[in-house]
């Protein structure tokens, strides 16, 4: 193989690794929103589970080394869930409910 071919192969591998890392980061952020699903209703659950199923399924719109479609679905679900969370918080403020403070997983409330 020529030097130019090796450069292209290495560049393609770096781009594929960067896309995979981006997809993993988005999937982790989506999974962290799972604790809010009960408050966000059926639309939030459909967006959450639909994005996860699409990402895990072996059948994609684009071949697997190209994670742009997976990243788009995950980012869209995160955007939608974020908008639902903002609407939920606004509704809580309007009704005068005080939302419980968010605790990190595994943290015990203060007494």
TrEMBL record:
InterPro entries: DUF1232 (IPR010652). It is a multi-pass membrane protein. This is DUF1232 domain-containing protein. Residues 101-111 have a biased composition (Pro residues). Its main location: membrane. Residues 45-75 form the DUF1232 domain. It is found in: Endomembrane system. It holds the Pfam family DUF1232. The chain crosses the membrane at residues 6-28, 35-54, 66-86. Keywords: Membrane, Transmembrane, Transmembrane helix. Residues 91-111 are annotated as: Disordered.
